What we know:
The protein is built from 19 helices and 20 strands. The two termini are about 40 Å apart. The chain is an alpha/beta fold and about 550 residues long.
Amino acid sequence: MDQNVNMNEVLECFQSILEPETGKDLISLKMVRDIELIGTNLNFKIHVPNAKYEHKEALYTSIIHCFEARFPQLSPNAHFIVKSSSSEMPNSVVPQVKNFIAVASGKGGVGKSTVSANIAINLSKLGFKVGLLDADLYGPSIPTMFGIQGLRPKVEVTQGRQKLVPIDVNGLAVISLGNIIDSEQAVVLRGPRLAAIIKQFFQETAWPELDYLIIDLPSGTGDIQLTLVQTIPLTGVVLVTTPQQVAVIDAIKAANMFSMEQINVPIIGVVENMAYFRPIDMPEKIYYIFGQKGGQLLNEMLKKKSMLCVGIDPDLSRISSQFNSSGFPIVDFAKCIIEQTCEYAIAYKLNIAFFESLGPIGWEQLEQIKEFIPKECLFIADAKRADIGNTSSMYAKYFFERLDADAITLHPYMGLDSLSPFLEHKSKWSIILALTSNPGSADFEKLMLENGRLLYEEVLTHFSENISADQAMFVVGATHPDHFLRIRSIVPDHFLLVPGIGAQGGDLKATIQLGKNDHGGLLINVGRSIIYSESKSSFEKDVQHAAKYFQSQMQEYWGI
């Protein structure tokens, strides 16, 4: 770098140049990026809103003149960029708004508008200047929620152009199509007209200076969402779902749209709405009417970009020697595993047999270890239970009520009635063995039946027809990649718990590419390859690096 050139002065030069349409400087609009000084060459990129932007030549001339006057020794080289993701677009349309937060969902009826309103109100209570745009053009409900039905936004003339003035609701600047058309008027709009209205809400509305503009989107991934990401630089998106699997599936589709390379909007978080019901007359009671942890599982998968389930099989003969001096080696070993992997894992599967083999102390240690699992992660009891009704009821009572496991593995061969006591716990998952990863699985699970189906296919068909994707998963081993397409044709929406990666030699890439569905739909169990380190270096680092490796591979093959 030239010692006579101060980078702050270079930025001041860019700051002195105003973009013609907005009258704002290039730095505040985030139009100048990637400034690099190599010798006397000053290289930088100018991001413009679209390919038809009319002021490129004028901007370039202003930049050259500025640097000729202030830094004659430099040779400025501008590279104009048109294509950029939504979050990286220059904010030339409404530069007075600092942050744009979209609230989206895959399915309607999940309470998205309520969440939008609550976010806006609470940000305002925190002292921020906040606006709320009701972009749900088909069913604008914000006017009803705020009690402003029948009010019309005023129109003012600004720089010779008529603009809508947002309605002030206790300090919130609110715009909704519901305040422009009659409340009983049906909205029948197609793509081009939808796009025009969304653009009008930004280009022809006199928004005040705002810290946050909350945008209540319609459900789905249609024209309105695409127009939005092409018009303004979204800061982030909040996804709203309910616990039901059908809502979670569609929420993940919405997440996938915002995660596309050309859009690339950060997902701030997932709200699981209507998570439970608490009766007024019995406030100590909580009922999970729509199931439990559907939104939580989605949130963890998206946040960590992971499908990793860490299997904990605490074999005393293989546990790292550093735990030998501990009074409770299994507890300390498992605690260390969980602490080192929780950044990358979305679930933990504890093999119950290893605890049962220790007698009463094993059960005590199991209950201790359960407390170390983060609440946001699924706790799977790998117990492979199921029996006649009374016996299954007791199994369910222990694993779901006392141990508070989120899920349990079950064998299917005593029929649906043997699983029914587990299914009575609506907020829990039953994970049914279908095609396991061990070599002997072919002895029975692949037997051909008289109807032309393999036995495991009959298991998948029977139980998926009787148990919804909100409550059931299926175990399918990664050692059978040639069966995944067939399996997905039978159970397109259910999650699959997939063992067999790592020590058993399953193909991770094939498993994900053939086994995933629209919402990911896979919990991939990795046990021995993570928890039993073969190296002589730090056990903690080895465990963490192994978990990180598998998570990064899953992210790559999942394509998120």
